[in-house]
Amino acid sequence: MPRAWGARHHPGVSDTSDKKQRSERRRAAHRAARRVLERPGFLATVRERLALLHETAPDLYDLDESADIYGSGIVEVLEERVAGLLGKEAAAFFPTGTMAQQVALRCWAGRTGNPTVALHALAHPEVHERNAFGVVSGLRTVRVTAEPRLPTADEVRGFEEPFGALMLELPLRDAGFVLPSWEELRATTEAARERDAVVHFDGARLWETTVHFGRPLEEIADLADSVYVSFYKSLDGFGGAALAGPRTLIDEAKAWRHRYGGQIYQQFPTALSALAGLERELPRLPEYVAHARVVAAALREGFAAAGVPWARVHPGEPHTHEFQVWLPYDADVLSEAAIRQGEETGTVLFAHSWDAKGPDLAVTEIGVRAAGLEWTAEDVKAAVADFVALLQDPASG
After folding, report:
1. Where does 150-284 have alpha helices with state H?
2. How far apart are CA 29 and CA 347, in angstroms?
3. How far is C-alpha 359 from the geometric centre of its chain's CA atoms?
4. Selection from 320, 103, 127, 294 nearest residue 233 by Cα
5. Residue-by-residue pLDDT tens, the chain, 397 positions
6. How many CB atoms lie within 10 A of CB 181?
7. Nearest to 194 by CA among 157, 223, 247, 166
8. How far apart are alpha carbons 93 and 30 in whole angstroms?
9. Chain centre to alpha carbon of residue 50
C-alpha cells in the first residue's frame, strides 16, 4: 500500500467507473469516520503530513545540517540506524522495496554463481511486481510451495533443483500475514544453507514480527544473510526501504542502486519520515499486535452472535497487527455494506476492499494501529452487529 485505499493491485486490469466510485466513497467514509481501527498516514492531506513531520523532525535530526545530496547526511544516519537495529554491518536506503530486493538478489547471484531464487508462490515478487526479477534483473524464480504458509525445512531440503538464494517473506501477506514458529524458521534457514544457498528476508513488515517470534529484531535478522525492510508499511513513513547485510554486499548494492536509477538527488523528507516512524511507531507495534488479537477474537464472537452461517478470522490468533476476515457473501455486497456503515454510523470496521474468492465468498484485510487501541471487545461486537444488519438490508446488494 498505498495503491488505492484498500484496493489490491491486479496488473493489466483497469478499474471500472463503479469500482473507482466505490473506492472514492470508501476513502471519504474512512476520512470522515469518528471510529476506525487504523488511520494510515497516506490518507492524510499533504498539509497534515507536513505538519506532523514538522512537529517531530526537530527531535530526530539537526535541522541546521545541510540537506542530503545523493545519499549523504540524513540518509547515511538512517542507514546506520537501520543497520544497528537489524544487527547488520551496513544498510543502504532505496526508494522502493522492489528495487532493493532485485539488487540484493542480483548481487547474491553473482556471488553464488546461481541466478535461481527459491520463494513462495504468493511472495510479493511473484504476485505484484510484473515479473520484475526475470524481466529486469535476469533472475529465475522457482516456487518451493503454494501452501498458505511459509516453506518448511523439508520442502527446502528436498527441492528438486539447485538455487542460489532462498527468499522468505516475513510475514507472508497474501496468505494472511502468517509467520512460521521460531523453530520452523531456524530449521528452514539451516536447510537452505545445507544446500549452499544464501537466505534473504523480504521483511517489508519484519518490524512487527518480534511478538510472534518472542525475539528481538537483531536476533530474527541474524537468521538471514540480507534483509529488506519497508519504512511505510508499518512505520507510516512517506516511502522508501532499506537493504541490510554484509558491508561488501551493501557497497555493491549501492553501485547497482545507481544503475537502477535509485541514486536520487535529495530524499530528506522521506528519510525524516522514516526516522519518525522508527521513533514513534516501532515501539508501539507490539501493542498493536496484542490488541489485534483482542479485535480478532471479538470479530469471531460477534459474527457468531449475529447468526452469520460461517466466518473465518485468519490466522485465528493474528501473528502481526494485520490479518484476514473471510465471509460467505458476494464481495460487492460486503464492500457496499462496509462503506455504508462508515457513511451512516461514523464507524468503519472494514476499511479495505473485499476480494472475491469464489461464489458468495470474499476476503478482506484488517489492520489495528493506534486508533484501534480505543476499541474494546464490546465495541467490536457492536460494530459487527451493525455491519451484519446492513448486509441484510436490500440496499447493500
Report:
1. 153-157, 182-194, 210-213, 217-221, 247-259, 268-280
2. 9
3. 28
4. 320
5. 333 444 444 444 445 688 889 999 999 999 999 999 999 998 899 999 999 999 999 999 999 999 999 999 999 999 999 999 999 999 999 999 999 999 999 999 999 999 999 999 999 999 999 999 999 999 999 999 999 999 999 999 999 999 999 999 999 999 999 999 999 999 999 999 999 999 999 999 999 999 999 999 999 999 999 999 999 999 999 999 999 999 999 999 999 999 999 999 999 999 999 999 999 999 999 999 999 999 999 999 999 999 998 999 999 999 999 999 999 999 999 999 999 999 999 999 999 999 999 999 999 999 999 999 999 999 999 999 999 999 987 665 6
6. 12
7. 157
8. 32
9. 23
**pTM score, two decimals?**
0.94
Burial 155-179 (b: 16+ CB within 10 A, else e): bbeebeeebbbbbbbbbbbbbbbbb
Cell numbers 554484509 correspond to what residue?
246
- Number of residues that this document lists for the chain: 397
**Burial of 104 (C-beta count, 10 Å sphere; 0-12/13-18/19+):** buried
Q: What is the C-alpha to C-alpha distance for residues 313 and 326, in angstroms, rounded to an integer?
A: 6
Give the DSSP H or E segment for 362: strand 361-367
Domain 17-43+283-396 belongs to what architecture?
Alpha-Beta Complex (3.90)
C-alpha to C-alpha distance for 394 and 3, rounded to whole angstroms: 30
Helix-then-strand count for the chain, H and E: 15, 13
Give the largest CA-CA distance in the chain: 62
Annotated domain spans of the chain: 17-43+283-396, 50-280
- Asked if CATH classification 3.40.50.300 holds for the domain at 50-280, the reply, yes or no, is no
**The predicted structure's pLDDT at residue 17:** 81
For residues 66 and 75, give the distance between their C-alpha atoms in angstroms, rounded to a whole number: 12
25 three-class SS: helix
**Cell numbers placing 371:** 486508533
What are the residue ranges of helices labelled H in the chain?
Answer: 17-32, 46-56, 74-86, 97-112, 124-128, 132-137, 153-157, 182-194, 210-213, 217-221, 247-259, 268-280, 285-305, 331-345, 377-391
Angstrom distances, CA of residue 122 to CA of 71, 167, 259, 268: 33, 12, 28, 33
